[in-house]
Here is the input.
Amino acid sequence: MHLPPVPLSWYLILSAILFALGAAGFVYRKSVITVFMSIELMLNAVNLSFVTFSYQLRQIDGHIYSFFVMVVAAAEAAVGLAIILTIFKNRGTLQIDEVDSMKL
Amino acid sequence: MDTILFIVFATVAVVCAFNLVFQTHPISSALSLIGVMGSLAVLYLLLGAEFIAMAQVIVYGGAVMVLFIFVIMLLNAGTEKASSKSWFAQIAGLPLLLAFVAVLAFLIRSALPGALAVPTRAVEFGSWVGGSAEEIGKLLFTQYLLPFEVISILILIAILGAVVLAQKEID
Here is the structure.
């Protein structure tokens, strides 16, 4: 059985679906940790786009950008999780709508 | 073969991403995120990005997710409570979202009229392997040397920030 090769647009559509799901989770979820994981999902979706365009253009610059995104995401995860720890120590909650001191 | 691989792993990625958004327990979400990252690593391999695929498994699937699960376990994060949504969001949320997406799509289509006419390549495994560690390393240490050095400083600052934030004693 010989299947036709995958068009490049399928990868972009997959990337768009993952990004949309990440954005939906970002606004829909109430747990700080899950919101943070949704951000990671969006970053992953963008990485897939970078690598796909890199394949289309036959240049590996997209891989480099994708690598930089990965490094920034790792740094962001370290700092973000430290902030979550501090919030939990101060407030005793992980629900984002209970952290509302700055709300009028 | 790569069509089957793409379909299988794209399905796994989308199902895991849905699971991430709709599970109420953070551990289930974290495990789904690992599934997404693993299947994305396979898709990177299909696109000829060997180095990125390995970095994805090591950095994301390994380091970042271990950090996440460690924090979830440490804080003993339970199921999140459903909170009341405002009546405006409940009624007008979906129509406004659809209208926004439609306007955005229209604007992008009218701003880039020829975008859909560009011929795209079909992805065939092995037809282009540009993303080996050798190629990436050459580019990273010549053309992208300055960003590479800057990002190492960023990581240093992030480590310091994480240590300072996490050790802070309250009261």
In short: The beta strands of chain B are 122-123. Residues 22 and 29 of chain B are 8 Å apart (CA to CA).
